[in-house]
Amino acid sequence: MSKRIDVNDLNVYYGSFKAVEGVSLSIEARSVTAFIGPSGCGKSTFLRTLNRMHEVIPGARVEGEVLIDGDNLYGPGVDPVLVRRQVGMVFQRPNPFPTMSIKENVLAGVKLNSQRMSKSDQDALVESSLVGANLWNEVKDRLDKPGSGLSGGQQQRLCIARAIAVKPDVLLMDEPCSALDPISTLAIEDLIEELKSEYTIVIVTHNMQQASRVSDKTAFFNIAGTGKPGKLIEYDDTTTIFTAPKVKDTEDYVSGRFG
């Protein structure tokens, strides 16, 4: 189910502004890859190119290739809606649909893709997705209550359950813990560790300790100055990036001597 990602010479534009320049990297299936770097260096923009979410912004476009198991997401005739089903996304702030119950939240993406399901199949999918997001035991007795009534950490796990219910190959997470307390953060980190047995996971994080704890590989992005594009500076095993980086900019950033 899990898929490998290959990016070849990707440039990302907003109108005439080049936000990200010349990124090439490969992400192994069933691994966790962290993107780190200062604010404004393009890491979240680049993350959103991996499921064509950035196109939602008027004037946004890319040059280059993003391949998932050899298939170019930007190839002619590729439907971005299908891409987003294959490559799920969890955002910075938990965003369960406030008017929907916990159960309806889990099924929202599946229904959006107009998959018809029997009630027993729906119930089974809700349970397996919530089990997969480590949330089932906490909510199984209140599935018809609003998702917005959960704590922040539970809401974020509900969003992860919603993302995995459509059975994607890849899960993108854009700073999934930045709005959470330390205990909820730990719960999400443990969950990421469990999910990587089934999914290819890419996470953007400002928290370098988090990157070092959860990821197998780390990509460091940087920006040369205001108005300049973000670039991939170094990409390696996480241990190498944090203990023996090859580029001085990376070393300065991870050791806190940066900017």
TrEMBL record:
<dbReference type="InterPro" id="IPR005670">
    <property type="entry name" value="PstB-like"/>
</dbReference>
<dbReference type="GO" id="GO:0005524">
    <property type="term" value="F:ATP binding"/>
</dbReference>
<keyword id="KW-0067">ATP-binding</keyword>
<keyword id="KW-1278">Translocase</keyword>
<dbReference type="InterPro" id="IPR027417">
    <property type="entry name" value="P-loop_NTPase"/>
</dbReference>
<dbReference type="Pfam" id="PF00005">
    <property type="entry name" value="ABC_tran"/>
</dbReference>
<feature type="domain" description="ABC transporter">
    <location>
        <begin position="5"/>
        <end position="248"/>
    </location>
</feature>
<dbReference type="InterPro" id="IPR003439">
    <property type="entry name" value="ABC_transporter-like_ATP-bd"/>
</dbReference>
<dbReference type="InterPro" id="IPR003593">
    <property type="entry name" value="AAA+_ATPase"/>
</dbReference>
<protein>
    <submittedName>
        <fullName>Phosphate ABC transporter ATP-binding protein PstB</fullName>
    </submittedName>
</protein>
<dbReference type="InterPro" id="IPR017871">
    <property type="entry name" value="ABC_transporter-like_CS"/>
</dbReference>
<keyword id="KW-0547">Nucleotide-binding</keyword>
<keyword id="KW-0813">Transport</keyword>
